[in-house]
Design brief:
The protein has 16 helices and 16 strands. By secondary structure, the protein is α+β, with helices and mostly antiparallel strands. It folds into two domains: about 30-185 and about 245-335, BirA Bifunctional Protein, domain 2 (2-Layer Sandwich); about 345-444, Anticodon-binding domain (Rossmann fold, 3-Layer(aba) Sandwich). The strands form three sheets. The protein has an eight-stranded mixed beta sheet, sandwiched between helices. Strands 13-12-14-15-16 form a five-stranded mixed beta sheet, with helices on both faces. A three-stranded antiparallel beta sheet has the order 2-4-3. The longest helix is centred in the first third of the chain and has 18 residues, at about 30-50.
Length: about 450
């Protein structure tokens, strides 16, 4: 019989391990309880800031990403998963390689701009890129992000950045660096690209093949190169901020003032350009040494022409995306405290066939009372059932045998102390709630 594994560059996200030692071979990114906790914090924070969720398809028209991200970017040129369907003629589709373009396509298609002057959206989505496999990089990874559409001022830029920083500090990542830059307007950036090309052209024979291609197709992307030789050759290249127009410069200075007023520290990085063509003015990254070589946890910026480029009205916007896997890697490396996964209120241990029938009914009553519960379905001995109750992080094991059925009671065993209490069946839900409170996850 053949055996199967997850596709290269992907990973399974599993239920939490049954013991505190976990699964030594599996990192935090494969424990779904940590995902629930992290995503819950992100969703609650977005609600606090006034952002509402948007969910888009996993694939979109290929041209959407060519127009939005840029044909000359590495993402579109080398990393997308593209396919055609069975329509006649075939239509071209691409698995979502980033979150902003689909969100803005939905914003434009459904004319959300008619509903309010500023639209604030967030998403949690799978992202697909054919990248070289390494720590923190997956061919299917998961991203959480926000988009603020309709406001052009540096005050909303400060809000977007502050939300990103607040998320990481709330989950327990404290070693953070905010890198900040302005890439100006399309016009001012064009002047800079002319200067960058003039500087780089004599050095092209010494650069990597990727940077030689970028020089021809999208010269600004040369600054993204991770090749040490490219970085050394570009060390004395012109600086983008020297080419900013007056309005972009004032916008950037005001943003710095807002961030300083909010107590958010930052490092100015004139070489930070991000990997997408749609950015204008503000560009930023949140980095942490706890992720390893791929130190970026989140990145984003302003895109004041993108909605218009996608067929909508002229609409300024700004947003960011953060990698969920990378956040979990940073948390694990920092050994940050993460709440224990939720457990059961009760695990039922039937002794005999009559008890099994009684437990089926009791299980239904507990669940109807919103108490998470399960039972043994395999007919194991008492010791094995109690071990299973412990693995399931149950607050109580409810033991039911012939004597209990005759008396109309259950034996409730406190899994922390081992003490047992006899409870009338009619009052089990009420008594369990009083004994353990409504949150049995904390009890275990």
């Amino acid at each position: 019989m053949p055996t199967y594994s997850a596709p290269p560059g992907t990973h399974d996200i599993l239920p939490p391990a049954p013991s505190a030692e976990g699964r030594p071979e599996r990192p935090w990114v494969d424990d779904v309880s940590k995902w629930h906790w992290l995503e819950g914090i992100f969703r609650n924070l977005c609600a606090l800031y006034g952002y509402e969720e948007v969910r888009t398809p996993a694939f979109e028209a290929t041209d959407l990403f060519k127009r939005a991200v840029g044909e000359g970017t590495d993402i579109v040129a080398k990393e997308t998963y593209d396919f055609t369907d069975r329509h006649t003629p075939p239509r071209h589709w691409t698995l979502r390689p980033e979150g902003t373009a689909p969100a803005l396509r939905a914003y434009t298609q459904h004319r959300l701009y008619n509903e309010r002057p500023v639209t604030k959206l967030y998403y949690v989505a799978s992202i697909f890129r054919y990248e070289r496999e390494q720590k923190g990089r997956y061919r299917q990874h998961h991203q959480a992000g926000i988009e603020a559409l309709g406001a052009a001022g540096p005050d909303v830029d400060a809000e977007v950045i502050s939300l990103a920083m607040a998320f990481f500090t709330r989950i327990g990542i404290t070693r953070l660096t905010l890198k900040l830059n302005s890439v100006g307007t399309v016009e001012s950036r064009a002047r800079y690209i002319d200067a960058l090309r003039a500087y780089a052209e004599p050095l092209l024979p010494e650069m990597s093949e990727d940077n030689q291609r970028r020089f021809r197709e999208n010269a600004l992307r040369m600054l993204d190169s991770k090749d040490e030789r490219d970085q050394r050759l570009l060390m004395d290249a012109p600086v983008l901020t020297d080419y900013l127009d007056d309005e972009s410069r004032a916008h950037f200075e005001d943003l710095q003032g807002y961030l300083t007023g909010l107590g958010i520290g930052f490092d100015l990085d004139p070489r930070l350009v991000r990997g997408f063509d749609y950015y204008t003015r503000t560009a930023f990254e949140v980095q942490s040494p706890d992720v390893g070589a791929q130190s970026t946890l989140a990145g984003g910026g302003r895109y004041d022409r993108l909605v218009e480029d996608l067929g909508g009205p002229a609409t300024p916007g700004i947003g960011f995306g953060l990698g969920i896997e990378r956040a979990l890697i940073a948390l694990e490396a920092a050994r940050a405290p993460v709440p224990a996964p939720p457990g059961l209120a009760a695990f039922l241990c039937p002794l005999g066939s009559a008890a099994r029938a009684a437990c089926v009914n009791l299980l239904s009553l507990l669940r109807a009372a919103n108490l998470p519960a399960d039972m043994d379905y395999t007919g194991r001995r008492m010791k094995a059932m109690l071990e299973q109750a412990d693995r399931r992080r149950a607050a109580y094991a409810l033991i039911v045998g012939d004597d209990e059925i005759a008396a109309g009671v259950v034996q409730a065993r406190d899994m922390r102390t081992g003490q047992q209490t006899q409870i009338p069946v009619a009052h089990v839900a009420e008594v369990l709630r009083g004994m353990g409170g409504t949150d049995f996850a904390e009890a275990r």
